Amino acid sequence: MSKKRSGGGLSPTQQAAKFLGVSVLAGAVLAGIALPAFGALGLAAKGSVESFDELPANLKTPPLSQRTTILDAKGGTIATVYSRDRTVVELKDISPYMQNAIVAIEDSRFYKHGAVDLKGVLRALNKNVQSSGVAEGASTLTQQYVKNVFVEEAGDDPTKVAQATQQTIGRKIKELKYAIQVEEELGKKKILENYLNITFFGQQAYGVEAAAQRYFSTSAKDLTLAQSALLAGIVQSPSRYDPINDEAEATKRRNVVLQRMAEVGDISAAEAKKAQNEKLGLKVSKPRNGCITAVDDAGFFCDYVRNVFLTDPVFGKTKEARAKTWNQGGLTIRTTLDPQAQDSVKQSLKDHVYESDKVAAAATLVEPGTGKIVAMGQSKPYGTNAKQHQTVINYSVGYGMGGSNFGFPTGSTFKPFVAAAALEEGRPADQEYSSPYQMEYPSPVQTCDSKPWVNTRGEKLENESESEKGPYRLRKAMELSVNTYFVQMISDIGLCPVVNMTNKLQVVQGNGDKLPEVPAIALGSKGISPLTMATAYAAFAARGMYCTPVAIESITQKVGQEKKSLEVPKSTCSRAMSETTADTVNQLLKGVVDSGTGKTAGLSDRDNAGKTGTTDSRKNAWFVGYTPNLSGAVWVGSASQKVEMKNIYIGGEYNSLVYGGQVPGPIWKDAMTGALAGKDAPKFNFVDIPEDNPGRGDGNGDGNGDGNGDGDNGDGNGNTGGQGDGGTDGGSFPTPTFSIPENLFQGNNGNGGGRG
Q: Are the beta carbons of 493 and 448 closer than 8 angstroms?
């Protein structure tokens, strides 16, 4: 009975017997003999293969995963992302030095033997017996290639990777059979090409092209003798021979490769000696992977593109299928991002809000009539380092696309949807309501079903200041953002027309839920994303045509050396309202930027329209506006919804109270100005809306442009009788039964009660 060594390993005799068994097995394989159960060789353990003939005849070779490049609309690179950093190249584009080096050190008899090298097996057996350990392996390059195929197929699944690399006789038998098939089908040159493209060279570099770039910032075809020897030496143990972390060990390994190249006649002894005396000469390119590398602060847009790919069924019927294609990579994704617009958004955010501020800002620009997202950014940088004020939460989009849990309450930026619904119902553009300073919510209010909404608790709402009281017509009510007016309008037309309008505009809450049928939606009490708001307002600019947002123009995928085009999501456009309704809303919102609460945001060189919004306790401030050819939404607030924007510094500027026209408005103005520079300036279709009776004197002058209604600039002196003092946001407005909890971002649904 054989004895084990004290360390628990096999004795030299036992090792010799084991290696002899492998060599006999290899010979049997080469002879094509069908093997019975392997009990005699001790191979019946779990993980072994019971019959050589029962193995599948064809090795399924998965496409090699490669890097994906995301481009802007002009073809500039936004970011490079990959599961494995690899660029597949043909053998002719790999340095002959590299080809010879890998063969010399890994399988010097590669061109002389078949799939299995029996001489190599016996040589390894002899050396291992002499050293009482495993001093040398016997796998051919072909066998190593097959093993790498198994590893590639396993992907990032640790269990599958372990199975693909487990040291069992069963796996070796499978490897041997597939190696025979590969030798017959591919030939030596193709096997070498495939091996150099699939193998791992450490430092996140898969394949020789990525390795050449990583360690020497050069291409595989330009590798020198010394560089080739270094890379070839890494393959055996990428961590041990990592030249970045252990230069001495890597140098010794490189020199071993050079010596071996001389021994097999690839180079002369003098050439080997000269190369051995060279320094490593590393010129390291750091791995650049993921949306963290995006230029022009487009990390959040990059992440949005990734989420589109992983969620849209056009890229695969299942989540797993889409993820597999994404991880396989090799994609060139051309997006809708306009570099001019993106740069303008980036600069505007930097100018107005600091990364370190207690609040954040997000801005998104969309093209009316196409749905193309041309810019997306926010003041907090993309990343995971909270100490550097970074976040990976995209405040511009909904939760399902990587955004906040519920979006953010929109305040009075919701009111144009109510007006559009009323106009579609046949209400005139000069519709008038009594609009008192304070009132109970009207009750009952008809909903889409037979059960009306009823104000069972006698809840009240009020306008921004006591001087803000009607009667008002629609134009002035929109300019001043009169709360009671729009709640009366909802009472008049019912909730169903408003819900139908927002459904057509695909206005949903940040978590994807539809808006509730309650009158307080007129005040923007529910959380919505900036992208949703920008896209909905784009329908006004497009004269009533709503187009779903899109971020991807085209995709090509490289599989090996072949390229194919992939289908991409298309914007779907549909009519949300009549042209007359859209034109009327445009005229109403033009008044907001001309003489209303959004005057500070208005553009001077082209037709534009927009609406301010501020919510209770000033936890959110908005400006959403557009020209006939560009729509944009800007939100300012805290993601946690815990910061009240009172007596606060934002972008180095002190604000006693933050208004929609004061902080978000200027961000929008600067972003749009830069984005539209040099672009056409089309006009809105003019609609004549009767003016309010100037002799009536409603006590609500424009107060320097925005002194009333929604709290977007307080203390403005009224010009038509009385004074508009703006006041604070929120007032004594009670919390209704349908309001939403305080904490928005961490799983609750925010504060309600929009105030313009």
A: no
